[in-house]
UniProtKB/TrEMBL annotation:
Main localisation: membrane
Record keywords: Cell membrane, Membrane, Transmembrane, Transmembrane helix, Transport
Membrane-topology annotation of the record: Multi-pass membrane protein
Top-level taxon of the source organism: Bacteria
Pfam families in the cross-refs: TauE
InterPro entries xref list: TM_pro_TauE-like, TSUP
Keyword hit for Transmembrane helix: yes
UniProt entry tagged with the keyword Transmembrane helix: yes
Cell compartments where the protein resides: Cell membrane
Family: Belongs to the 4-toluene sulfonate uptake permease (TSUP) (TC 2.A.102) family.
Protein name in the entry: Probable membrane transporter protein
Transmembrane segments: 79-97, 104-123, 143-168, 180-198, 204-222, 234-252
Length: 253
């Protein structure tokens, strides 16, 4: 498809902001999906094309967090196993569940996350110095990560918030390390989904790569922000993004 200069700037700008938002919290697709659809893409094509940017920003963020020593590489496989299993089950469930279930589930999840951050902040943002746990030491983490994966496979939108709750709530990672692992999980989810979308010929590579260019720079900047930011600042940014997710869910047709 032909892309105008204005559309290129729109994709770069929304991609940059989404890269920051997704790396520090979640919900950046609330910006990029409308931007792609404004260009005339059907919803399913916009959803598929958007994953190019999500994948690139995820890879950029993971690389950045690892460079700064904030990615817990020794426990990644145990974290990914229940997440991926849940994601596959969620995707299978989405194929048969009524579409009318998606909006209430998305809205309910965002509202629950906002209330948890406001009323029980220690669940999502452990106090500094709180020791983290391994998956093998915390059986409940399998359930939390599996549910996060199921939600991601079923809905996708807002999965970053659910992953943060599972990683910080059960394994007690601080928000920086939880965000690093969240992005790693996102890369795995997105790669699988993108392969399927490519097989179905739903990806428009021109807009997708332009969007990815913006998300890459946004994610790169967000990693630096996450490393330097105070835990309290990250917590309130996460809270604000969950509220934005609630608004986006209510506005979705």
């Amino acid at each position: 498809m032909d892309i105008s200069l204005l559309q290129i700037l729109l994709l770069l700008g929304t991609g940059f902001l989404a890269g920051i938002i997704n790396t520090l919290a979640g919900g950046g697709s609330n910006l990029t999906l409308p931007a792609l659809m404004v260009m005339g893409m059907p919803a399913e094509v916009a959803n598929a094309t958007n994953r190019v940017g999500v994948l690139i920003q995820g890879m950029t963020a993971v690389s950045g967090f690892r460079h700064h020593g904030k990615l817990e590489t020794d426990d990644t496989v145990p974290i990914l196993i229940p997440s991926v299993i849940g994601g596959l089950l969620g995707a299978a469930g989405a194929a048969y569940a009524p579409a009318t279930w998606i909006k209430p589930l998305l809205l309910g999840t965002m509202l629950t996350m906002a209330l948890v951050i406001l009323l029980r902040p220690a669940i999502i943002a452990p106090e500094p110095g709180t020791p983290s746990r391994k998956v093998r030491q915390t059986p409940s983490s399998w359930l939390g990560l599996g549910l996060a994966g199921f939600y991601g496979g079923f809905v996708q939108a807002g999965v970053g918030f659910v992953l943060l709750a599972a990683l910080a709530g059960t394994l007690r990672y601080d928000l920086v390390r939880a965000n690093a692992l969240k992005m790693l999980c996102t890369v795995v989810f997105t790669l699988v989904a993108l392969i399927l979308f490519i097989a179905e010929d739903l990806v428009l590579w021109g807009p997708g790569l332009i969007l990815a260019f913006g998300t890459m720079f946004g994610a790169h900047l967000a990693v630096k922000m996450a490393i330097k930011a105070k835990p309290e600042t990250l917590k309130w940014f996460l809270f604000i993004m969950t509220l934005c997710g609630c608004v986006a869910a209510m506005a979705t047709d």
